[in-house]
Amino acid sequence: MDNFLLQAGAWCVKYGDEMEKTLFQKIADKEIPSTMVYEDDLCVAFRDITPVAPVHVLLVPRKPIPSIGAATAEDAELLGHLMLKVGEIARAEGLAEGGYRTVLNTGVDGGQTVPHLHIHIIGGRSMQWPPG
Ligand code: 5GP
């Protein structure tokens, strides 16, 4: 297990086997307020609190998978569901014509700050490449 996953695990373990919810689970469960743009029984999508573009939505599975690198074959259907929701949410946000960027930051070098898998859907302006 890499350092990031160990760290993520440590953040999730409260006392003994009792798991503390991740920040994004608390948002999904409406314990922390957010501007929700989509939700179903498998995932939620809400506006990023610090948007980097006119549209910046985070698409998050309810299941607290720490990162894309921690997903397993058991998660295949859920990951497929998320991929399809990206297009739906982008269309609903008016991004389909101009295009948009999807980002999965993973681990320390990837710039991941919340250890719960999430897909950034970013649009409404022209993007640069390579990313910083
Ligand atoms: P990461 O850096 O892990 O790829 O992305 C985490 C994202 O979560 C960041 O873009 C950050 O702005 C966003 N974020 C962190 N805390 C909150 C919060 O409490 N509410 C919302 N809506 N977004 C958050």
Quick structural summary:
The chain has helices at residues 3-12, 23-28, 76-92, 107-110; strands at 13-15, 18-19, 36-39, 43-47, 55-61, 100-103, 119-123. The chain has 132 residues and is an alpha+beta fold.
Describe the structure.
Helix content is 28%, strand content 23%. The strands form two sheets. It has a five-stranded antiparallel sheet, covered by helices on one side. A two-stranded antiparallel ribbon has the order 1-2. The model is unreliable at 10-17 (pLDDT under 50). The chain has helices at 3-12, 23-28, 76-92, 107-110; strands spanning 13-15, 18-19, 36-39, 43-47, 55-61, 100-103, 119-123. It has a domain at 34-123: HIT family, subunit A. The structure holds guanosine-5'-monophosphate. Guanosine-5'-monophosphate binds at residues 23, 27, 32, 34, 46-50, 58, 105, 111-114.
pLDDT < 50 stretches: 10-17
Let me know the CATH homologous superfamily of the domain at 34-123: HIT-like
Q: Helical amount among residues, as a percent range?
A: 25-40%
- Tell me what the CATH architecture of the domain at 34-123 is: 2-Layer Sandwich
CATH fold call of the domain at 34-123 = HIT family, subunit A
SSE arrangement, N to C? HEEHEEEHEHE
Instruction: Give the amount of beta strand, in percent.
Output: 15-25%
Which ions, cofactors or small ligands are bound in this entry? guanosine-5'-monophosphate
